[in-house]
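Researcher: Good morning. I'm working through a list of sequences from a screen, and I'd like to move beyond sequence-only analysis. For each chain I'm collecting a predicted structure so we can compare shapes side by side. This is the next one on the list. No need for commentary yet; just the structure.
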Amino acid sequence: MTKNARNKISNPNIMRYLFYAVAVMLPFLIVAVLLILNGFGIKTSMLLPVWNDEVSRWNQINTMVHCSKPLGYYGYNGTHAEIGTWGPWGWASLLPYCIFGKVFGWNFNSIAIANMTFLSLSITIFLALTKPKIKQILLILFIYISSVITIVYSITSMAEGLHYSLGITLIGLFIYLA
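Model: Good morning. Structure tokens for this chain:
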């Protein structure tokens, strides 16, 4: 191997971009590891809405994907909505999932897959805005892996995954502007 070829392989930018790729795929990688460790293999069909709020949110988005607006009564704690059928949190947190469903199709595990996608996208935006060095990327990876609540809610059918994604993007914007 020539000296020039060795320099290209040991280039720190290659390592940095490799860690970038791992960071971007981390939401999917962690879920895959969790599914495998629990004996499900890589079956995303296990990521079904089962909690009361998850089922309600899935139904709202399902009707938005197929009928362009939620149908039925989606108020707080199963009561009727005060205004229309948008539910207690309004349309803003439902719209990204509706767009995801219209683009990629909609089934029972779509919200969990959308959450992982939103988290990956937000990490991509964060890395593009902040351009961290290798040690900083390792710290980001450690923080993400240690954030149990982010991981748990990324595999549920709740909007917390979207909220965490928006938070990560906003932090990246603040760092970029600073």
